[in-house]
Predict the structure.
Amino acid sequence: MYGGGYIPAGVEETKAQAESPELLAQFEARITRGEKIEPRDWMPAVYRKQLIRMIEQHAHSEIIGALPEGTWITRAPGFRRKLALMAKVQDEVGHAQLLYSAAETLGKKREDMLNDLINGKSKYSNVFNYPAETWADVAVIGFLIDAAAIVNQVANSKGSYGPYCRALERICYEESFHLKQGHSVFVWLATGTPMQREMLQNALNRWWEPIMHFFGPSDTMSQHTETLMRWKVKMATNDVMRQQFLNIYVPKIWDLGLSLPDPELRKDESTGQWLFTEPNWDTFFKVINGDGPCSRERLAVRKVAEERGAWVRAALRRADARYATPLA
Amino acid sequence: MPILSLDPRVNRLQVEQVPEHQPPVLVPGDHWPSYQVFHQRRRGEKHSSVGIVHAPSLEMAMAMAKEQFGRRGETSNLWVVCTADVLEMDYADEEVFRTTPSKSYRDPAGYKVNEKIDAYKAKQTP
Amino acid sequence: MTNQPLPTAPLARYLLHLADDQLVMGHRNSEWTGLGPILEEDIAFSSIAQDQVGHALAFYEYLNQECGLADPDQTAFNRPESLMVSSWLVEQPIGDYAFSLVRHWCYDQAVYLRYESLSQIQDPALQALATKLRGEVKYHTFHANTWMKSLLQGSEESRLRMLTALKEVWPMALGLFESWSGEKALMEQVGHAGQPWYPGERHLQQHWQAGTLESLVLWSVDVEALGLHKVEPVLGGRQGYHSEHLASMLEEMTAVFRLDPQAEW
């Protein structure tokens, strides 16, 4: 569902070179050849750490992402929308499951990942720290945020780590249903009654800045970024993905006669690049560090869900259970 | 004070804010061990590895696998195996298989008879 | 709100019981999505909820096409509480997972029996529908049985929670089999095998009770000690009398739809 979106790296660069120049060379050659790295392959510590962080935070984005739209499950208008939203949010939980599983192959346990989510140590896509105030928010999230996520996911699915690619393949397939469903709700509201259209326009106005934040600030092409791109961990720059998104979806929004709250937004036909007002990155960092409108609520709900289910899990836990790092 | 949410479900849960220094909520092993899932799309096809489920038993793992891996597309059959029971080959041993493609004596393409036949026929013509 | 009167024809009225029950049950069960005790079970329970809402839709569609009721969205999303004929069991809030599971177990066993008898009806469309839906409920009962057995035999705490839930659920589960006005007439309707297809609520209840009690005993539940034999059924749902929970549930369920019931959503 909501492909990671940009989350600041915060991973210190260690000297991978120092680990073993021979193994590193083999590792990099494999990636250059387009082959995948599998869980028990030798890999630089930074690669492992970065991947765990990336996949884990993508998983958190999915499970938390279930909450803003989940807000409207009980209020979806009519059978078609009710069933579709139930299925969609279910998929988000399903994607979280697939992604936690992929991250687990690298050695971090699911319990540790969930604990880190709840205590605020691990991050997730900022966009879910905003409230879904009306039914129309479901349309905006389902159409535009899913669209942004797909841009991200399609790029990442060509990455180097086998289990993550395999999980993304499945996720991308399900995403195409989500996008169609989201677009459908969007179009029905846009072409509906004045009340419906106004609800949608308001939602668009509120969500545009979080959407513009989705891909993160312009990449400073550091050595770190360059290494991650060489290792096919980072597959495209934030700017490239943002441009892709704007290029496909802004015309679709304008086509319905809806407006976007950025007077500078337009495509420069000579360069093919979209121009826009630079979003407020201070706000972005404030929110991602736990101070968004719903940040506290999202984590609190996740905590309560885990706590209230603890007796169920404990009841079936066996002393002779055999744990092993998953293969995926 | 419970958090006030836009989601009526959340309000019914009466959720409190997470404290500043939240200790771990989940104990080790809390989410059960993992089971590898193998999925067969149609009869006659192979079962393929599709991922894992966390479950307390084989029976539960099967129930969960049906949901996670069978709710879309076609499914004919599923297998579940405890991850701890799977012996994984070491990728370092991959080189054992490196010369396999070049063992032409095991390969149908390694047996070309046309040249020999043609040469024989050529010899027969007076 | 559509104040269209409730159908009086016995079959239509009976199908409306099924439809309303599935709608409310599915809606309640969907409240667990994203909040379940573990990811894998969250996913499973959500499928059950979707099935139930889907079943409700199928019955409302039949009622719309064959029995003159308004279209499914109008019937489900625009009806006052006093005209809903769902049972008390399904409208209760989700409670803890023990409550929801025990309710799920009791409810889906009853639904299975109803679909089984409905698949004997003469009308080929309903016959086919009941047969198809029964397949899904089979999975529901499998799921419920697995969890009932596991948690009754799990830990001290899980057993206690499940037994508490059983005591709470049982009177309302009995209420699923409330007598209703068209019951006798429907019992005379002949099915495709030449026999009546609908055995009536008493018979369905006996069948249901025999099955559930047998399982409970097998799982070492002391049904005597729980007093399950002495319980009075909670009635009223089929007559349009509901607990205080249905009104607020419907209010929530229909909030967006009622912003403009004639709009296309």
In short: The two ends of chain A are 19 Å apart (CA to CA). The domain at 31-312 of chain A is CATH 1.20.1260.10 (Ferritin). Chain A has a mean pLDDT of 92. The first helix of chain A runs from residue 21 to 32.
